[in-house]
Amino acid sequence: MKQIIRMTALALALLLLCAGCGRGSSAPTGAGTAPVGPSEPIVLHILENDTAKAEGYLDALIAAFNEAYAGKGIQAVDANMDEYTDLALNGPYGYGPDVLYQANDQLMKYAEDRHILPLAIEELDCYESTPEAAWDAFRLSVDGSVYFCGVPVNIQEPMLFYREDMMPENWQAEWDDDQNGTADFFENWCDLYAYSASIRESDPARYGFMASLNNLYLASPFMLSYGSYIFGEKDGAVDPSDVGFSAGNAVNGLSALRQFAALMNEGCIDDTITLNRYEKLADGSYFCTVSTPDTYSLFVGNLANHYMGEGMGEDEARARAEANLKMIELPAKMPADGDLSQDSAGAQWVDTVVMGGVNGYGISSYTKHREACMEFVDFATGYEMIQTRVEMLGIAPTRQDVAQVSGDTADMIFDSLASGRICLMPSVKAVDQIWTPTQTVMGDVAKDPFRAAQGEPQKYGTTEALQAALETIDKNVYDAIHTLAG
Hints:
CATH architecture of the largest domain: 3-Layer(aba) Sandwich
CATH superfamily of the largest domain: Periplasmic binding protein-like II
Low-confidence stretches: 2-37
Number of helices: 20
CATH class of the largest domain: Alpha Beta
Helix content: 40-55%
Largest sheet: 6 strands, mixed
CATH topology of the largest domain: D-Maltodextrin-Binding Protein, domain 2
Mean pLDDT: 90
């Protein structure tokens, strides 16, 4: 990879000069980038995700940067805008941030249309300590040249969160058939289904595994474990004309999704569970739920509040929450035929595949302060700030030197990526068109177990109906991409 970067250094410089071509010399150049007097500092507007803002990390980052650069004429401020701001729409009119933190699919959709600058990543402190797989998430090929348009911070995949103090007392005797020290319901989906069913039978107010099943990212095991794919490949590149959600035995996964929905409540058909999972896991309503590593701090905070509500002191509650809140990968085995109700002892398996991503920083092509932005990104991805981010948010850092001292979550995720257990979100703008069609169909399939109570007939009781639903996703995604291209 280093050789590729050196070979494209001159091309990079040319692209930097041409990034804003065709917009006119009088076009605005991004939020906070108006000309300043010689005695005024350069002000950089920083866009972070909502969790980083809510947990105080962005404030800590800005304070640390401003202190370090107090004598250098650069100041960072919160961009004060939604984390999913549309840079392509707002940037040309002066409302976009200078630096933005996003998942690879979001950053790279902007990079394709030159709303994000290519970066000289060899100049960054994090360059040598970041694995090539993380850099590849921000790789852009243009006319035979390769550019990197983002700086990795953390790697993501859907993870299972649970309270260790809510584990069944007899789990070692009843739920560890191979006696390997890990509960069977954390290893395969049939036993997770069985344990969830047992919870519902013993207490109708409690649930086992809970997730918003309309969410492609969080419910991706049901969509990607049976041979389906997002986009195909052509000549070594992503081919958005080849949409593959209905490929392979994908119908078995959608059948399993429908089956598991019956053990949940109607909150699984929309974003309800995504919004209440922190509170419901904390109060014991959910045994386990799914989220990403960077939300770890939200689970801990809610659990600590729950303990304090029971009369525990703040420090003790926090310590107990950190001890009891566990984050592990989703079960690695799915039943090959999609039937979750079968005895796991006789099941045939396929490997669970989930969707993943890499979050990182990009620099708007509309900023007038490219060098200052690079200074900020270098600071924000330095060892100390990434370590602080780990401590405050619980991320899985892409910096290997930080990962070595902060736990093995990042190594585990990179191992899963290398083994094919994780399918990274494609770093192309066409990926924007997959979310609504999948959400619509997945939510509708998850609603099927609840239709009878509303006097409605089931829609997806046959393999043919499920297959047709998957083919509808393929068609709608393809049509959306084709319409945009036109």
